[in-house]
Amino acid sequence: MKKFLAMLMAAAMVFGAAACSSGNNTGNNGGNAGNDGGSGDAGNDGAIVIRIGGIGPRTGDTAMYGLATERGAQIAVDEINALGGDIQLEYRFEDDTGVAETAVSAYNTLKDWDVDVIYGCTTTAPCVSVAAETYADRYFQLTPSASSTDVTADKDNVFQMCFTDPGQGVTAADYVAENGLATKVGVIYNNGDAYSTGIAQGFIAHAPEVGLEVVTEQTFPDDSNTDFTVQLTACRDAGAELVFMPIYYTPAALILNQAKNQLNYSPLFFGGDGMDGILGVVDESLAKGLMLLTPFNASSTEEATANFVAKYEADYGETPNQFAADGYDCVYAIYQALQQIDNLAEIAAMDPAERHTALCDALVSVFTSPDFSFSGITGSGMTWGTNGEVTKDPMVVVVEGGAYVTQ
Fold first, then answer.
1. Domain spanning 2-163+301-393, CATH class
2. CATH for 165-294?
3. Tens of pLDDT along 346-386?
C-alpha cells in the first residue's frame, strides 16, 4: 500500500497538483469554495463523482487544528483528481468554529449541497453532535481527529482515523513503564476538554497496573489558561520525575516555558498526539527532550511522508502536523474503500435522497471487512472494528535538534 500511495503521489505531480474545478478550487491558499457554494470539483467526464463534505474549525480557539485537517484532505483530493481516474472527488469544507451547534448547522449546509460522505469533525464535542445526526440520516462519517469513544458509541456509521482517548492513555502508561522513564508521575490535563480528560483518565487508571505511581493529578479549566505555576509546583513538590500532559500544544508551550524559566523544574515531559505542532510555537531549547505519542513524524525520510510534507510546505508555508496527516489519510482511505464497491456506479446514479444511504451501507461493509486494510502516512495495515475504532501502531518521538526523532 505504501508503494501504491507513492505511485499515486508521483502521478499527481506529473498531471499537476490541483484538481480540475468547475467551482473554486482553493487548495493552495487554505480556503475552500464552501463559503460561496462551490467546491473542489472533479473535471473528468464520465467519471463517478463522490462529494466529500468536511467539517471543522477555520476560526475560533481550535482553528489551527481544523485548518490542518482541511488542508491535508485538500492535498489528497487534488492528487486523486489529478490522476484522472474513474472516481473523482468534490470537496467542500464548512467552518464549525469548534462549537457543537455550529457544527450541526455546517452539516445541514452540506446536506443541502447533496453531500455523499462526511469527513470530520475535527474536535470531539462538535463531532459527537454531528455523529448523532449522521447516524439518524445514514451518512458515512470518518473523523481525522475526534478521538473520544463518545463519537462512535452505539453508531455503526462513524469511524475514526485517530487513536481513541482511553487507548492513547493506556499506551502512554505502558511505554513509560516498559522503558523505565519514571516511577513517579504527575498528570496535568484540561478537565474542560473531553479529549484531554479521556486520555488522562485512561493513563491514571492504568498506571498502577504497570508499576507507576501517579503522585498528583492537576487540572485547568480550558485552553485559554495562561498560568500553570500552581500545577507545576504541585508536580515538583510531589516528586514527579515525569509529567504526563495529554493537552494541545498552545497550553503545553506555556507549561514548558514556565517550568524552565520560572520554577527551574525539569522533569521529563510526555505528551499525546494533540501536542504535535509544538515546534512551531516554542523555542527549540524549551522543547528539547519532550516526548510525544503520535501517529506521524514530519521529519521522517519515508518517501510517502516526505512527499506529503514537501507538498504541504510548498502550498501553505509550514510543516504539517499529525492533524494534517490524518486528514490526508482519511481521504485516501475513503478513496480506497470506494474502489472496492462493485456497484458504485449504480449507487452514484441514484437520487441524492437515496444515494448517501446506499453509499453509507457499502462503505461500512468495506471498512469493517476482515479483508480491508489501509496503509498511509499515519500508519501501516490499519483496520477498523465494528465500533469504528482504528487499529494501528503508535509512534513515540523525542524532540532533538529541533526535530522529531522516532524512538
1. alpha beta
2. 3.40.50.2300
3. 999 999 999 999 999 999 999 999 999 999 999 999 999 99
